[in-house]
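protein under study:
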Amino acid sequence: MPRILDQARYKCGLGGMQTVHAITKALPILHSGPGCADKLEGAGSAGTSGHFAPRIFPCTNISESEVVFGGERKLRETIENALRVIDADLYVVLSGCSAEIIGDDIEAVVREFREGEKPVIYASTAGFKGNNYLGYEWVLEAIFKQYLKKEAVYGVETGLVNIFAGLPIHDPFWHGNYEVLSELLKELGLKPNIIFGFGNGIENIKQLPKAEFNLLVSPWLGLSSVELLKELFGTPFLHYPNLPIGAYETSKFLKTVGDFAGIDPKKTAALIDEKERKYYYYIERYADVFLENRVMSKRFVVVSDAQYTLGITRFLVNDVGLFPEKQYITDDTPEPYKKNIEDLFQDLNYGIKAEVSFETDGYQIQEEIKNTDYHGYPLLIGSSWEKKVARETEAHFLSISWPLNERLVINSSYAGYEGGLKFLEDIYSVVLTRFN
């Protein structure tokens, strides 16, 4: 009997269209049933407009006729019309469940357009194959294999670094995270190359094979992508397994990247010293707020994907000195990656260890939270779906993950030194409401 999930925190594989959408002037073309784009981009203030918006994504809108007689002709017409009327730099055909169930040869149809003026590629993203985290990997694989020419001669550009971090659009803070990571690398003297976000598009994709190395900032998402780039172009990669939040982790991040890139350790140390002096200046000024309030227990819970559950746990333990209860990872992490992630939750400062649960059922998560004694008012960090259980447990609640319905995030970030301070602002702004 199939397991029924309540409040799943991910979408189907066709959600890979958000990965395409995050690349400037890249257009998803959906071979799927009607309504998929609107539903997949919905829920919360995700910032889904831009050069294109989901409601104008070309779609074959498969109906009973295509299910019976096949939808290849309609797909061909949809691609032709998209090329004719929509000015994009890259056209990415994505398949939904119905198109793959009926056996359409989508790749053969797309191949007909390979020699055209504008690039058209294809990724298999049927929802029954996996969720939108895997859809992200499938889209990147399609770009690397079908758009980039393996046989072309690419020279390595010294200092050029491709950055991959998190799931674009689905992660409310994706814009800000990329901007922060980019600035940190620039301060080390490196040249970041990012294919997602403001001003980043087809020209950035063309630069991918020229990088000195790839930087992956993620517990598991993107590992298969950087491994593929290494296989195709021989580009080495540095895997930093968690989002650096606050001074402890960001300083460690800078040292790790600096060492990998061969940067003078004295330069890296001077940068870290400068950043930490400013960071701790602000921490000291507001230390009484963090240390003397009596309205929040020292216990916290994070309910999010692996990126945020791990990054926030490490920040709240290593920088703030809070104690973790069971932490929940909701992105349906593939089995091969779980052990390494669990080990990172055991490697915290002061000998503290955190229990972690890879759980996709929101009902199960919330029942466990309700039945835990936090010895006071805990800190609960999650999505809008945790708002109810936060009320029931009298927790201090901050929503940071999809679905995010009560906050607008434009380009904020919790990454880096400034991100750590921003995170403390948001947490204690909630805590201080207890006094009113």
Summary: The chain is about 45% helix and 15% strand. Residues 265-285 form the longest helix (21 residues). Residues 245 and 415 are 5 Å apart (CA to CA).
